[in-house]
Amino acid sequence: MRHSLVEGTLRVLGTGFLGVWHMRPKALRRRAANRDRCHGCRHRHHRLMRVLAILLGFQVLGVVALAAFAVRAPLCRPPSWMSPLDAQRYVTPGGGPIVALRQFLTAGQTGLALAYAETRGADVCRFAPNGNLTARMETGFARGGTMFGHIFLTHPQAHTDSYEELLGLKRHEARHTEQWALFTVLGGPAAFPVAYSVDELFAPGAFNHFERHAGLREGNYAPPDGPSPTATRLLLVGAIVLILLFERHRVRRQAALLLLLARRFRQRAANPWWHEKTEPVPENRLVRRVSPTAAGVLAEHRRLRQLGCSACGDLPKTSPQPAKASQH
Question: Could you tell me the CA-to-CA distances from 10 to 32, 109, 212 in Å, in that order?
């Protein structure tokens, strides 16, 4: 019962609703039967639990970092070019239960990004209308800025000329926070970065579906003027998968050969070639390797010394010189 509770906690907190699905009684019984009759299944289960425990540990560290650094973050000051009315709107708190819920769901990821920003000396403040954090620093983010949870890592200089444009950018980043929260509930804290990276691989930049959902114009993305590369990249990946399927036996043999070579290389690194023709000899708290003949002589030397003959068995300091033939 205790192990099931620990497993359920790790799965739910580490993979969201996906973990709830895997904790069905039927799924629990099937996994228990597999672990009983499959030694490899048991090892894979333990590795998965360790990975989820590490992921949960990072989340706890993020929450602690958020509690330590975010409480002292001041409200973001309005830019000097704003009118008094817009400046008042800029510092007026907003949001509600929805904002509080998405910030709660993204607390771990936000805390880790906030700790990273603090190590780089970022200027952190809180945008009052939606409660999101803003960390301004010189480098350490992608494009014009990167959203992690509900913290926006961006450049110190604002790239907007009006309050409406700035508010549009904040709405764009707030939608990314909603995406973070939704994918955290569905698949855990690592689900959104994985999904975004996969989408970026096939549909980069302005073709990214997450960026389109957040609003290209508000996110300062130029509308794409060409066809999306998604179809081409999908065809390329499909062709690679088909080649691997048809050549899987050859790929498996090559992989096995590479593993064998790597194993032999590690064995040779642990036991160099000269170890086969030498023997270890201790000397002044160190161990050096000599030939078997020299090792026998040194062992006899130590035996004679132990019998009380300190000068017996001493090796010559230098090799003897051959006698010169006398000249007549």
Answer: 17, 17, 33
Confidence of residue 323 (pLDDT cuts 50, 70, 90): low
pLDDT tens for each residue of 21-70: 988 888 888 888 887 777 777 888 888 899 999 999 999 999 999 999 98
Token match 């590795």: residue?
Answer: 47
* CA atoms of 41 and 39, how far apart (whole Å): 5
Please say whether the beta carbons of 195 and 24 come within 8 A: no
Give 15: exposed, middle or buried? Use CB within 10 Å, 0-12, 13-18, 19+: buried
The residues, ordered by sequence, that sit 6+ positions from 294 with a Cβ below 8 Å of its Cβ are 281
CA 244 – CA 226 distance, rounded (Å): 31
Render pLDDT for 228-254 as a digit per residue (tens, 0 to 9): 888 888 888 889 888 888 888 888 888
- Radius of gyration from C-alpha coordinates of the chain: 33
Unique residue bearing structure tokens 């739910």? 12
String of DSSP letters for 268-293 = HHHS-GGGGG-EEEEETTEEEEE-HH
Order of all β-strands in the sheet with 133-136: 123-126, 133-136, 151-154, 145-148
CA atoms of 272 and 131, how far apart (whole Å): 62
Task: Give the C-alpha separation, 32 to 248, whole Å.
Answer: 31
What would the pLDDT profile of 148-173 be if each residue is shown by its tens digit? 999 999 887 765 567 777 888 888 99
- Assigned token pair, 256: 């096995």
Q: Given its phi and psi angles, is residue 300 left (phi above 0), alpha (psi -120 to 50 degrees) or beta?
A: alpha
Q: Render pLDDT for 123-155 as a digit per residue (tens, 0 to 9).
A: 999 988 888 999 999 888 888 889 999 999 988
